Protein backbone atom coordinates (compact mmCIF):
# COMPACT_ATOMS: atom_id res chain seq x y z
CA UNK A 1 0.00 0.00 0.00
CA UNK A 2 1.44 3.28 -1.03
CA UNK A 3 0.16 6.58 0.28
CA UNK A 4 1.25 9.93 -1.06
CA UNK A 5 0.65 11.50 2.30
CA UNK A 6 2.05 14.93 1.54
CA UNK A 7 0.06 15.40 -1.63
CA UNK A 8 -3.26 14.12 -0.37
CA UNK A 9 -3.80 14.41 3.35
CA UNK A 10 -2.03 17.68 4.00
CA UNK A 11 -4.18 19.40 1.41
CA UNK A 12 -7.42 18.06 2.86
CA UNK A 13 -9.06 20.69 5.10
CA UNK A 14 -10.96 17.93 6.90
CA UNK A 15 -7.74 16.20 7.83
CA UNK A 16 -6.09 19.41 8.96
CA UNK A 17 -9.03 20.40 11.16
CA UNK A 18 -9.23 16.91 12.61
CA UNK A 19 -5.54 16.70 13.39
CA UNK A 20 -5.52 20.22 14.83
CA UNK A 21 -8.35 19.46 17.24
CA UNK A 22 -6.82 16.09 18.08
CA UNK A 23 -3.47 17.67 18.93
CA UNK A 24 -5.24 20.26 21.08
CA UNK A 25 -7.14 17.62 23.02
CA UNK A 26 -4.06 15.45 23.30
CA UNK A 27 -2.22 18.38 24.86
CA UNK A 28 -5.13 19.03 27.24
CA UNK A 29 -5.26 15.44 28.32
CA UNK A 30 -1.50 15.13 28.78
CA UNK A 31 -1.08 18.46 30.58
CA UNK A 32 -4.45 18.34 32.37
CA UNK A 33 -3.18 17.69 35.89
CA UNK A 34 -0.65 20.53 35.57
CA UNK A 35 -3.13 23.01 34.07
CA UNK A 36 -5.89 22.32 36.57
CA UNK A 37 -5.98 25.16 39.14
CA UNK A 38 -7.62 22.98 41.81
CA UNK A 39 -7.93 19.38 42.83
CA UNK A 40 -11.13 18.23 41.05
CA UNK A 41 -12.16 16.16 44.08
CA UNK A 42 -11.80 19.10 46.47
CA UNK A 43 -15.33 19.90 47.67
CA UNK A 44 -14.52 22.94 49.77
CA UNK A 45 -15.84 25.72 47.51
CA UNK A 46 -19.20 27.48 47.58
CA UNK A 47 -21.65 25.20 45.67
CA UNK A 48 -23.20 26.49 42.44
CA UNK A 49 -21.26 29.71 42.30
CA UNK A 50 -20.93 31.48 38.93
CA UNK A 51 -17.64 31.80 37.02
CA UNK A 52 -15.12 34.12 38.62
CA UNK A 53 -11.41 34.97 38.57
CA UNK A 54 -10.48 31.94 40.63
CA UNK A 55 -13.04 29.50 39.20
CA UNK A 56 -13.07 29.96 35.41
CA UNK A 57 -16.21 27.89 34.92
CA UNK A 58 -17.71 28.21 38.37
CA UNK A 59 -18.37 25.53 40.96
CA UNK A 60 -20.81 22.62 40.72
CA UNK A 61 -23.46 21.48 43.19
CA UNK A 62 -20.93 19.37 45.08
CA UNK A 63 -18.58 22.34 45.59
CA UNK A 64 -16.02 21.18 43.03
CA UNK A 65 -14.21 23.39 40.53
CA UNK A 66 -15.78 22.70 37.11
CA UNK A 67 -12.74 23.71 35.04
CA UNK A 68 -10.47 21.25 36.84
CA UNK A 69 -13.13 18.57 36.57
CA UNK A 70 -13.35 19.20 32.83
CA UNK A 71 -9.61 18.79 32.30
CA UNK A 72 -9.60 15.45 34.13
CA UNK A 73 -12.76 14.31 32.35
CA UNK A 74 -11.32 14.95 28.87
CA UNK A 75 -8.25 12.99 29.90
CA UNK A 76 -10.25 10.01 31.17
CA UNK A 77 -12.58 9.89 28.18
CA UNK A 78 -9.69 10.04 25.71
CA UNK A 79 -7.73 7.41 27.59
CA UNK A 80 -10.73 5.08 27.58
CA UNK A 81 -11.18 5.61 23.84
CA UNK A 82 -7.55 4.93 23.02
CA UNK A 83 -7.17 1.87 25.22
CA UNK A 84 -10.28 0.34 23.74
CA UNK A 85 -9.33 1.25 20.17
CA UNK A 86 -5.76 -0.05 20.50
CA UNK A 87 -6.95 -3.31 22.02
CA UNK A 88 -9.55 -3.76 19.26
CA UNK A 89 -6.92 -2.95 16.66
CA UNK A 90 -4.45 -5.46 18.09
CA UNK A 91 -6.97 -8.29 18.18
CA UNK A 92 -8.43 -7.34 14.80
CA UNK A 93 -5.11 -7.16 12.97
CA UNK A 94 -3.74 -10.42 14.33
CA UNK A 95 -6.95 -12.38 13.76
CA UNK A 96 -7.65 -10.75 10.37
CA UNK A 97 -4.16 -11.40 9.03
CA UNK A 98 -4.20 -14.98 10.31
CA UNK A 99 -7.65 -15.62 8.81
CA UNK A 100 -6.59 -14.21 5.46
CA UNK A 101 -3.24 -15.97 5.37
CA UNK A 102 -4.11 -19.43 6.68
CA UNK A 103 -7.61 -19.55 5.19
CA UNK A 104 -9.75 -22.65 5.48
CA UNK A 105 -10.74 -23.64 8.98
CA UNK A 106 -9.07 -20.72 10.78
CA UNK A 107 -10.74 -18.30 8.39
CA UNK A 108 -14.16 -19.82 8.92
CA UNK A 109 -13.93 -19.86 12.71
CA UNK A 110 -12.63 -16.28 12.99
CA UNK A 111 -15.15 -14.83 10.57
CA UNK A 112 -18.11 -16.69 12.07
CA UNK A 113 -17.19 -15.53 15.58
CA UNK A 114 -16.87 -12.03 14.13
CA UNK A 115 -20.36 -12.21 12.62
CA UNK A 116 -21.85 -13.32 15.93
CA UNK A 117 -20.08 -10.55 17.86
CA UNK A 118 -21.12 -7.88 15.37
CA UNK A 119 -24.77 -8.75 15.77
CA UNK A 120 -24.76 -8.41 19.57
CA UNK A 121 -25.41 -4.85 20.78
CA UNK A 122 -22.24 -4.04 22.72
CA UNK A 123 -23.89 -1.44 24.93
CA UNK A 124 -26.19 -4.10 26.36
CA UNK A 125 -23.29 -6.31 27.41
CA UNK A 126 -21.48 -3.30 28.86
CA UNK A 127 -24.56 -2.23 30.84
CA UNK A 128 -24.94 -5.76 32.06
CA UNK A 129 -21.32 -6.07 33.13
CA UNK A 130 -21.22 -2.59 34.64
CA UNK A 131 -24.46 -2.98 36.59
CA UNK A 132 -23.66 -6.41 38.00
CA UNK A 133 -19.93 -6.36 38.57
CA UNK A 134 -18.94 -2.67 38.63
CA UNK A 135 -15.63 -3.40 36.90
CA UNK A 136 -12.91 -0.80 36.46
CA UNK A 137 -13.23 1.40 33.35
CA UNK A 138 -10.23 -0.40 31.83
CA UNK A 139 -12.01 -3.74 32.07
CA UNK A 140 -15.01 -2.15 30.33
CA UNK A 141 -12.72 -0.75 27.64
CA UNK A 142 -11.35 -4.22 26.99
CA UNK A 143 -14.84 -5.76 26.90
CA UNK A 144 -15.83 -3.12 24.36
CA UNK A 145 -12.73 -3.94 22.32
CA UNK A 146 -13.92 -7.53 22.29
CA UNK A 147 -16.96 -6.37 20.32
CA UNK A 148 -15.24 -3.92 18.01
CA UNK A 149 -12.48 -6.03 16.45
CA UNK A 150 -14.53 -7.85 13.77
CA UNK A 151 -14.95 -4.82 11.48
CA UNK A 152 -11.18 -4.22 11.58
CA UNK A 153 -10.32 -7.84 10.98
CA UNK A 154 -12.67 -7.98 7.97
CA UNK A 155 -10.79 -5.13 6.29
CA UNK A 156 -7.39 -6.61 7.21
CA UNK A 157 -8.42 -10.02 5.94
CA UNK A 158 -9.53 -8.66 2.58
CA UNK A 159 -6.26 -6.76 2.19
CA UNK A 160 -4.28 -9.85 3.20
CA UNK A 161 -6.00 -11.87 0.50
CA UNK A 162 -4.88 -9.39 -2.15
CA UNK A 163 -1.38 -9.05 -0.66
CA UNK A 164 -0.88 -12.82 -0.84
CA UNK A 165 -0.58 -12.49 -4.59
CA UNK A 166 1.99 -9.68 -4.54
CA UNK A 167 5.54 -10.40 -5.72
CA UNK A 168 7.45 -9.77 -2.52
CA UNK A 169 5.17 -12.00 -0.46
CA UNK A 170 5.44 -14.77 -3.04
CA UNK A 171 9.20 -14.35 -3.01
CA UNK A 172 9.21 -14.69 0.75
CA UNK A 173 7.17 -17.88 0.48
CA UNK A 174 9.60 -19.19 -2.18
CA UNK A 175 12.49 -18.62 0.18
CA UNK A 176 10.78 -20.75 2.76
CA UNK A 177 9.26 -18.13 5.05
CA UNK A 178 6.73 -19.58 7.46
CA UNK A 179 3.22 -18.25 7.99
CA UNK A 180 3.89 -16.34 11.19
CA UNK A 181 7.15 -14.95 9.83
CA UNK A 182 5.41 -13.56 6.74
CA UNK A 183 2.54 -12.13 8.77
CA UNK A 184 4.96 -10.45 11.13
CA UNK A 185 7.56 -9.18 8.67
CA UNK A 186 5.53 -8.55 5.52
CA UNK A 187 1.81 -8.31 6.09
CA UNK A 188 1.57 -6.37 9.34
CA UNK A 189 4.01 -3.56 8.40
CA UNK A 190 2.60 -3.30 4.89
CA UNK A 191 -0.96 -2.64 6.01
CA UNK A 192 -0.06 0.14 8.40
CA UNK A 193 -2.27 2.85 6.79
CA UNK A 194 -5.34 0.67 7.35
CA UNK A 195 -4.69 0.70 11.09
CA UNK A 196 -5.06 4.45 11.26
CA UNK A 197 -8.58 4.30 9.82
CA UNK A 198 -9.51 1.49 12.18
CA UNK A 199 -8.01 3.28 15.15
CA UNK A 200 -9.84 6.54 14.45
CA UNK A 201 -13.18 4.83 13.82
CA UNK A 202 -12.95 2.68 16.94
CA UNK A 203 -11.69 5.49 19.16
CA UNK A 204 -14.74 7.50 18.14
CA UNK A 205 -17.05 4.64 19.00
CA UNK A 206 -15.34 3.97 22.33
CA UNK A 207 -15.38 7.60 23.45
CA UNK A 208 -19.06 7.81 22.60
CA UNK A 209 -19.69 4.63 24.57
CA UNK A 210 -17.76 5.93 27.55
CA UNK A 211 -19.74 9.16 27.56
CA UNK A 212 -23.00 7.22 27.25
CA UNK A 213 -22.13 4.81 30.06
CA UNK A 214 -21.13 7.72 32.27
CA UNK A 215 -24.31 9.53 31.32
CA UNK A 216 -26.43 6.52 32.25
CA UNK A 217 -24.66 6.39 35.60
CA UNK A 218 -22.83 3.12 35.09
CA UNK A 219 -19.28 4.25 35.75
CA UNK A 220 -17.58 4.90 39.06
CA UNK A 221 -19.20 8.16 40.24
CA UNK A 222 -15.94 9.50 41.69
CA UNK A 223 -14.10 9.11 38.40
CA UNK A 224 -14.30 12.24 36.25
CA UNK A 225 -15.94 11.64 32.88
CA UNK A 226 -17.61 13.90 30.33
CA UNK A 227 -20.75 11.77 30.35
CA UNK A 228 -20.96 11.86 34.13
CA UNK A 229 -20.54 15.65 34.18
CA UNK A 230 -23.36 16.02 31.65
CA UNK A 231 -25.49 13.67 33.71
CA UNK A 232 -25.05 15.71 36.89
CA UNK A 233 -25.38 19.07 35.15
CA UNK A 234 -28.57 18.00 33.39
CA UNK A 235 -30.30 17.72 36.79
CA UNK A 236 -29.88 21.50 37.11
CA UNK A 237 -30.60 22.46 33.52
CA UNK A 238 -33.54 24.70 34.45
CA UNK A 239 -31.27 26.92 36.54
CA UNK A 240 -29.11 29.67 35.14
CA UNK A 241 -25.97 27.56 35.34
CA UNK A 242 -26.28 25.54 32.15
CA UNK A 243 -23.96 27.72 30.06
CA UNK A 244 -20.99 27.37 32.39
CA UNK A 245 -21.67 23.88 33.68
CA UNK A 246 -23.57 21.92 31.03
CA UNK A 247 -22.12 23.48 27.88
CA UNK A 248 -18.37 22.92 28.45
CA UNK A 249 -18.51 19.12 28.70
CA UNK A 250 -20.95 18.99 25.79
CA UNK A 251 -18.68 21.14 23.63
CA UNK A 252 -15.63 19.12 24.60
CA UNK A 253 -17.33 15.81 23.86
CA UNK A 254 -18.65 17.05 20.51
CA UNK A 255 -15.33 18.52 19.39
CA UNK A 256 -13.48 15.41 20.53
CA UNK A 257 -15.72 13.10 18.53
CA UNK A 258 -15.87 15.53 15.58
CA UNK A 259 -12.08 15.59 15.36
CA UNK A 260 -11.78 11.80 15.37
CA UNK A 261 -14.61 11.54 12.81
CA UNK A 262 -12.86 14.01 10.51
CA UNK A 263 -9.65 12.01 10.77
CA UNK A 264 -11.44 8.75 10.03
CA UNK A 265 -13.30 10.16 7.02
CA UNK A 266 -10.29 11.92 5.49
CA UNK A 267 -8.03 8.90 5.96
CA UNK A 268 -10.66 6.65 4.42
CA UNK A 269 -10.86 8.97 1.44
CA UNK A 270 -7.10 8.76 0.91
CA UNK A 271 -6.69 5.06 1.55
CA UNK A 272 -9.69 3.51 -0.14
CA UNK A 273 -8.57 3.33 -3.77
CA UNK A 274 -12.06 2.73 -5.14
CA UNK A 275 -13.47 5.73 -3.34
CA UNK A 276 -10.48 7.85 -4.28
CA UNK A 277 -10.88 7.01 -7.94
CA UNK A 278 -14.56 7.83 -7.86
CA UNK A 279 -14.16 11.07 -5.96
CA UNK A 280 -11.14 12.46 -7.79
CA UNK A 281 -11.76 10.97 -11.21
CA UNK A 282 -8.31 9.38 -11.22
CA UNK A 283 -7.48 5.80 -12.05
CA UNK A 284 -7.03 3.64 -8.97
CA UNK B 1 -28.89 -25.06 -10.88
CA UNK B 2 -29.82 -27.60 -8.26
CA UNK B 3 -26.44 -27.34 -6.61
CA UNK B 4 -26.66 -23.57 -6.65
CA UNK B 5 -29.96 -23.43 -4.81
CA UNK B 6 -28.68 -26.04 -2.42
CA UNK B 7 -25.62 -23.92 -1.79
CA UNK B 8 -27.73 -20.85 -1.20
CA UNK B 9 -29.86 -22.85 1.19
CA UNK B 10 -26.82 -23.89 3.20
CA UNK B 11 -25.66 -20.25 3.37
CA UNK B 12 -29.04 -19.34 4.79
CA UNK B 13 -28.75 -22.09 7.35
CA UNK B 14 -25.23 -21.02 8.35
CA UNK B 15 -26.47 -17.50 8.87
CA UNK B 16 -29.46 -18.55 10.90
CA UNK B 17 -27.18 -20.80 12.93
CA UNK B 18 -24.80 -17.91 13.65
CA UNK B 19 -27.65 -15.77 14.88
CA UNK B 20 -29.15 -18.53 16.98
CA UNK B 21 -25.72 -19.00 18.50
CA UNK B 22 -25.48 -15.29 19.27
CA UNK B 23 -28.94 -15.34 20.84
CA UNK B 24 -28.09 -18.42 22.87
CA UNK B 25 -24.86 -16.80 24.03
CA UNK B 26 -26.78 -13.72 25.19
CA UNK B 27 -29.33 -15.84 27.04
CA UNK B 28 -26.63 -17.93 28.67
CA UNK B 29 -24.64 -14.86 29.73
CA UNK B 30 -27.66 -13.31 31.35
CA UNK B 31 -28.35 -16.62 33.08
CA UNK B 32 -24.81 -17.26 34.26
CA UNK B 33 -23.40 -13.83 35.09
CA UNK B 34 -25.74 -12.94 37.98
CA UNK B 35 -24.97 -16.31 39.53
CA UNK B 36 -21.28 -15.43 39.72
CA UNK B 37 -22.02 -12.52 42.02
CA UNK B 38 -21.20 -12.70 45.69
CA UNK B 39 -24.30 -12.16 47.79
CA UNK B 40 -27.81 -11.67 46.50
CA UNK B 41 -30.99 -9.76 47.18
CA UNK B 42 -31.49 -11.42 50.53
CA UNK B 43 -28.09 -10.34 51.86
CA UNK B 44 -28.62 -6.89 50.37
CA UNK B 45 -32.00 -6.50 52.07
CA UNK B 46 -31.26 -7.98 55.46
CA UNK B 47 -27.51 -7.47 55.66
CA UNK B 48 -27.70 -4.04 57.24
CA UNK B 49 -31.03 -4.40 59.05
CA UNK B 50 -31.59 -5.06 62.76
CA UNK B 51 -33.01 -8.49 62.06
CA UNK B 52 -30.63 -11.40 62.37
CA UNK B 53 -31.73 -14.35 60.26
CA UNK B 54 -31.13 -17.94 61.18
CA UNK B 55 -29.71 -20.30 58.57
CA UNK B 56 -33.09 -21.87 57.88
CA UNK B 57 -34.88 -18.53 57.53
CA UNK B 58 -32.19 -17.29 55.17
CA UNK B 59 -32.42 -20.38 53.01
CA UNK B 60 -36.20 -20.05 52.93
CA UNK B 61 -36.05 -16.40 51.89
CA UNK B 62 -33.46 -17.18 49.28
CA UNK B 63 -35.60 -19.97 47.86
CA UNK B 64 -38.58 -17.61 47.86
CA UNK B 65 -36.83 -14.76 46.05
CA UNK B 66 -34.28 -16.30 43.72
CA UNK B 67 -36.02 -19.36 42.25
CA UNK B 68 -32.64 -20.79 41.42
CA UNK B 69 -33.27 -23.48 38.84
CA UNK B 70 -31.36 -24.82 35.85
CA UNK B 71 -30.67 -23.25 32.47
CA UNK B 72 -33.50 -25.21 30.80
CA UNK B 73 -36.19 -23.82 33.05
CA UNK B 74 -34.62 -20.37 32.65
CA UNK B 75 -35.24 -20.57 28.91
CA UNK B 76 -38.77 -21.86 29.42
CA UNK B 77 -39.60 -19.04 31.81
CA UNK B 78 -38.09 -16.61 29.32
CA UNK B 79 -40.39 -17.89 26.59
CA UNK B 80 -43.41 -17.68 28.92
CA UNK B 81 -42.71 -13.97 29.52
CA UNK B 82 -41.92 -14.75 33.15
CA UNK B 83 -38.87 -12.51 33.54
CA UNK B 84 -38.90 -12.00 37.26
CA UNK B 85 -40.24 -9.39 39.61
CA UNK B 86 -38.92 -5.88 40.03
CA UNK B 87 -37.75 -5.04 43.56
CA UNK B 88 -37.89 -1.31 42.98
CA UNK B 89 -41.06 -0.84 40.93
CA UNK B 90 -42.92 -3.73 42.63
CA UNK B 91 -44.41 -5.17 39.48
CA UNK B 92 -43.53 -7.96 37.03
CA UNK B 93 -40.64 -7.13 34.71
CA UNK B 94 -42.62 -8.19 31.64
CA UNK B 95 -45.36 -5.68 32.47
CA UNK B 96 -42.85 -2.84 32.85
CA UNK B 97 -41.18 -3.91 29.63
CA UNK B 98 -44.36 -4.02 27.56
CA UNK B 99 -45.53 -0.70 28.98
CA UNK B 100 -42.31 0.92 27.78
CA UNK B 101 -41.80 -0.96 24.52
CA UNK B 102 -44.41 0.84 22.32
CA UNK B 103 -42.87 4.25 23.06
CA UNK B 104 -39.39 3.09 22.14
CA UNK B 105 -40.60 1.38 18.99
CA UNK B 106 -42.50 4.51 17.99
CA UNK B 107 -39.51 6.79 18.62
CA UNK B 108 -36.71 4.63 17.23
CA UNK B 109 -38.72 3.17 14.36
CA UNK B 110 -39.91 6.56 13.16
CA UNK B 111 -36.41 8.02 13.50
CA UNK B 112 -34.91 5.21 11.43
CA UNK B 113 -37.63 5.48 8.82
CA UNK B 114 -37.31 9.25 8.40
CA UNK B 115 -33.53 9.25 8.37
CA UNK B 116 -33.37 6.36 5.89
CA UNK B 117 -35.83 7.94 3.46
CA UNK B 118 -34.51 11.48 3.72
CA UNK B 119 -30.85 10.38 3.73
CA UNK B 120 -31.37 8.15 0.72
CA UNK B 121 -33.16 10.66 -1.49
CA UNK B 122 -30.93 13.55 -0.44
CA UNK B 123 -27.85 11.42 -1.09
CA UNK B 124 -29.02 10.38 -4.56
CA UNK B 125 -30.00 13.90 -5.59
CA UNK B 126 -26.80 15.44 -4.25
CA UNK B 127 -24.62 12.83 -5.95
CA UNK B 128 -26.44 13.64 -9.19
CA UNK B 129 -25.53 17.32 -8.81
CA UNK B 130 -21.81 16.74 -8.32
CA UNK B 131 -19.43 19.59 -7.53
CA UNK B 132 -22.15 22.19 -7.21
CA UNK B 133 -22.33 24.58 -4.30
CA UNK B 134 -25.27 22.60 -2.87
CA UNK B 135 -23.30 19.35 -2.88
CA UNK B 136 -20.23 20.79 -1.19
CA UNK B 137 -22.32 22.51 1.47
CA UNK B 138 -24.45 19.45 2.20
CA UNK B 139 -21.47 17.11 2.40
CA UNK B 140 -19.49 19.34 4.75
CA UNK B 141 -22.53 20.00 6.91
CA UNK B 142 -23.37 16.32 7.17
CA UNK B 143 -19.75 15.37 7.89
CA UNK B 144 -19.74 17.86 10.73
CA UNK B 145 -23.05 16.54 12.04
CA UNK B 146 -21.78 12.95 11.83
CA UNK B 147 -19.30 13.69 14.59
CA UNK B 148 -21.72 15.28 17.04
CA UNK B 149 -22.98 12.64 19.48
CA UNK B 150 -26.64 12.30 20.48
CA UNK B 151 -25.91 13.49 24.00
CA UNK B 152 -24.83 16.88 22.70
CA UNK B 153 -27.58 17.44 20.12
CA UNK B 154 -30.16 16.20 22.59
CA UNK B 155 -29.11 18.54 25.38
CA UNK B 156 -28.73 21.49 22.99
CA UNK B 157 -32.20 21.00 21.50
CA UNK B 158 -33.62 20.65 25.00
CA UNK B 159 -31.98 23.88 26.13
CA UNK B 160 -32.99 25.88 23.07
CA UNK B 161 -36.48 24.68 22.17
CA UNK B 162 -37.77 23.55 25.52
CA UNK B 163 -36.08 25.75 28.08
CA UNK B 164 -35.47 29.05 26.28
CA UNK B 165 -38.18 29.14 23.64
CA UNK B 166 -40.66 26.91 25.44
CA UNK B 167 -42.08 25.47 22.22
CA UNK B 168 -41.95 21.84 23.25
CA UNK B 169 -42.37 19.99 26.55
CA UNK B 170 -39.17 18.78 28.19
CA UNK B 171 -40.37 15.45 29.55
CA UNK B 172 -42.92 12.71 29.09
CA UNK B 173 -44.68 11.34 26.03
CA UNK B 174 -48.32 12.37 26.25
CA UNK B 175 -50.80 14.55 28.08
CA UNK B 176 -52.43 12.30 30.64
CA UNK B 177 -55.84 13.98 31.06
CA UNK B 178 -58.82 11.69 30.79
CA UNK B 179 -61.20 14.25 29.29
CA UNK B 180 -59.14 14.89 26.16
CA UNK B 181 -60.52 13.89 22.80
CA UNK B 182 -58.63 11.40 20.65
CA UNK B 183 -57.37 14.16 18.37
CA UNK B 184 -56.00 16.21 21.25
CA UNK B 185 -54.25 13.19 22.73
CA UNK B 186 -52.70 12.43 19.38
CA UNK B 187 -51.55 16.03 18.95
CA UNK B 188 -50.05 15.90 22.44
CA UNK B 189 -48.16 12.73 21.58
CA UNK B 190 -46.69 14.34 18.48
CA UNK B 191 -45.85 17.48 20.44
CA UNK B 192 -43.88 15.40 22.92
CA UNK B 193 -42.29 13.29 20.21
CA UNK B 194 -40.80 16.14 18.15
CA UNK B 195 -37.62 16.85 20.12
CA UNK B 196 -36.44 13.28 20.80
CA UNK B 197 -37.30 12.34 17.24
CA UNK B 198 -35.36 15.30 15.85
CA UNK B 199 -32.34 14.35 17.97
CA UNK B 200 -32.31 10.78 16.75
CA UNK B 201 -32.90 11.79 13.12
CA UNK B 202 -30.00 14.25 13.34
CA UNK B 203 -27.85 11.42 14.65
CA UNK B 204 -28.86 8.79 12.07
CA UNK B 205 -29.24 11.00 8.99
CA UNK B 206 -25.60 11.93 8.22
CA UNK B 207 -24.45 8.30 8.07
CA UNK B 208 -27.22 7.35 5.66
CA UNK B 209 -26.70 10.45 3.57
CA UNK B 210 -22.93 10.07 3.19
CA UNK B 211 -23.15 6.35 2.49
CA UNK B 212 -25.77 6.82 -0.23
CA UNK B 213 -23.91 9.71 -1.78
CA UNK B 214 -20.60 7.84 -1.93
CA UNK B 215 -22.08 4.70 -3.42
CA UNK B 216 -24.23 6.70 -5.85
CA UNK B 217 -21.16 8.55 -7.10
CA UNK B 218 -19.60 5.22 -7.93
CA UNK B 219 -22.80 3.92 -9.52
CA UNK B 220 -23.11 6.98 -11.77
CA UNK B 221 -19.79 6.11 -13.39
CA UNK B 222 -20.92 2.58 -14.27
CA UNK B 223 -21.37 1.50 -17.88
CA UNK B 224 -25.02 0.57 -17.54
CA UNK B 225 -25.81 4.14 -16.55
CA UNK B 226 -24.35 5.38 -19.85
CA UNK B 227 -26.38 2.72 -21.64
CA UNK B 228 -29.54 3.78 -19.88
CA UNK B 229 -28.97 7.38 -20.84
CA UNK B 230 -28.05 6.47 -24.39
CA UNK B 231 -31.34 4.62 -24.71
CA UNK B 232 -33.01 7.97 -24.11
CA UNK B 233 -34.75 7.07 -20.86
CA UNK B 234 -36.11 10.01 -18.87
CA UNK B 235 -33.55 11.29 -16.31
CA UNK B 236 -35.77 10.42 -13.37
CA UNK B 237 -35.95 6.79 -14.48
CA UNK B 238 -32.19 6.63 -15.07
CA UNK B 239 -31.54 8.07 -11.65
CA UNK B 240 -33.86 5.86 -9.64
CA UNK B 241 -34.63 2.65 -11.56
CA UNK B 242 -31.05 2.17 -12.79
CA UNK B 243 -28.84 4.11 -10.42
CA UNK B 244 -30.38 4.51 -6.99
CA UNK B 245 -31.45 0.89 -6.74
CA UNK B 246 -27.80 -0.13 -6.75
CA UNK B 247 -26.87 2.63 -4.34
CA UNK B 248 -29.49 1.29 -1.93
CA UNK B 249 -27.57 -1.93 -1.29
CA UNK B 250 -24.77 -0.62 0.92
CA UNK B 251 -27.33 1.30 2.92
CA UNK B 252 -29.29 -1.84 3.76
CA UNK B 253 -26.26 -4.09 4.29
CA UNK B 254 -24.55 -1.62 6.60
CA UNK B 255 -27.79 -0.87 8.45
CA UNK B 256 -27.71 -4.14 10.35
CA UNK B 257 -24.10 -3.65 11.40
CA UNK B 258 -24.72 -0.11 12.56
CA UNK B 259 -27.90 -1.02 14.42
CA UNK B 260 -26.03 -2.89 17.13
CA UNK B 261 -24.14 0.30 17.98
CA UNK B 262 -26.95 2.77 17.35
CA UNK B 263 -28.98 1.41 20.28
CA UNK B 264 -26.74 3.41 22.60
CA UNK B 265 -28.02 6.70 21.21
CA UNK B 266 -31.65 5.77 21.72
CA UNK B 267 -31.02 4.94 25.39
CA UNK B 268 -29.32 8.28 25.97
CA UNK B 269 -31.92 10.33 24.11
CA UNK B 270 -34.77 8.80 26.07
CA UNK B 271 -33.04 9.64 29.31
CA UNK B 272 -32.46 13.27 28.22
CA UNK B 273 -36.13 13.87 27.40
CA UNK B 274 -37.44 11.52 30.11
CA UNK B 275 -39.35 9.73 27.36
CA UNK B 276 -41.09 6.74 28.99
CA UNK B 277 -39.46 4.08 26.81
CA UNK B 278 -37.04 1.26 27.49
CA UNK B 279 -34.08 3.64 27.87
CA UNK B 280 -35.70 5.52 30.71
CA UNK B 281 -36.85 2.28 32.30
CA UNK B 282 -33.30 0.98 32.11
CA UNK B 283 -31.90 4.22 33.51
CA UNK B 284 -34.29 4.18 36.45
CA UNK B 285 -33.51 0.52 37.05
CA UNK B 286 -29.79 1.28 37.05
CA UNK B 287 -30.30 4.12 39.54
CA UNK B 288 -32.22 1.78 41.84
CA UNK B 289 -29.82 -1.15 41.18
CA UNK B 290 -32.90 -3.17 40.25
CA UNK B 291 -31.12 -6.16 38.76
CA UNK B 292 -34.11 -8.20 37.45
CA UNK B 293 -35.30 -5.22 35.38
CA UNK B 294 -31.80 -4.51 34.03
CA UNK B 295 -31.42 -8.17 33.17
CA UNK B 296 -34.81 -8.38 31.46
CA UNK B 297 -34.51 -5.18 29.45
CA UNK B 298 -30.94 -5.89 28.35
CA UNK B 299 -31.63 -9.47 27.32
CA UNK B 300 -34.94 -8.97 25.54
CA UNK B 301 -33.90 -5.84 23.68
CA UNK B 302 -30.69 -7.48 22.45
CA UNK B 303 -32.71 -10.46 21.27
CA UNK B 304 -34.95 -8.02 19.40
CA UNK B 305 -31.93 -6.39 17.76
CA UNK B 306 -30.69 -9.82 16.69
CA UNK B 307 -34.09 -10.59 15.17
CA UNK B 308 -34.09 -7.31 13.22
CA UNK B 309 -30.58 -7.91 11.86
CA UNK B 310 -31.48 -11.45 10.81
CA UNK B 311 -34.60 -10.18 9.06
CA UNK B 312 -32.48 -7.59 7.22
CA UNK B 313 -30.17 -10.33 5.95
CA UNK B 314 -33.13 -11.84 4.16
CA UNK B 315 -34.37 -8.46 2.93
CA UNK B 316 -31.15 -7.60 1.17
CA UNK B 317 -31.02 -10.97 -0.44
CA UNK B 318 -34.27 -9.92 -2.10
CA UNK B 319 -32.99 -6.46 -3.06
CA UNK B 320 -29.74 -7.82 -4.47
CA UNK B 321 -29.99 -11.29 -6.01
CA UNK B 322 -26.18 -11.32 -6.45
CA UNK B 323 -25.62 -11.74 -2.71
CA UNK B 324 -27.24 -15.15 -2.78
CA UNK B 325 -24.57 -16.30 -5.21
CA UNK B 326 -21.60 -14.66 -3.54
CA UNK B 327 -19.15 -16.82 -1.66
CA UNK B 328 -19.48 -16.70 2.07
CA UNK B 329 -15.91 -15.60 2.66
Primary descriptors:
heterodimer; A: mainly alpha; B: 329 residues; mainly alpha; globular
How would you describe what is shown here?
- The complex is a heterodimer of chains A (284) and B (329).
- Chain A has helices at 5-8, 13-35, 66-102, 104-119, 122-133, 137-163, 167-174, 179-190, 192-215, 226-234, 242-271, 273-280.
- Chain A has 284 residues and is an all-alpha fold.
- The N and C termini of chain A lie close together (12 Å).
- Residues 280-284 of chain A have low confidence and may be disordered.
- Chain B is an all-alpha fold and 329 residues long.
- Chain B is built from 13 helices and no strands.
- Chains A and B meet through helix 4, helix 5, helix 9, helix 10 and helix 11 of A and helix 1, helix 6, helix 7, helix 8 and helix 10 of B.
Describe the secondary-structure layout.
The complex is a heterodimer of chains A (284) and B (329).
Chain A: H1 5-8, H2 13-35, H3 66-102, H4 104-119, H5 122-133, H6 137-163, H7 167-174, H8 179-190, H9 192-215, H10 226-234, H11 242-271, H12 273-280
Chain B: H1 2-32, H2 41-46, H3 55-66, H4 71-79, H5 93-128, H6 133-147, H7 150-164, H8 182-220, H9 223-230, H10 235-272, H11 278-287, H12 291-319, H13 321-325
Helix pairs in contact in B: 1-12, 5-8, 5-10, 5-12, 6-8, 7-8, 7-10, 8-10, 9-10, 10-11, 10-12, 11-12
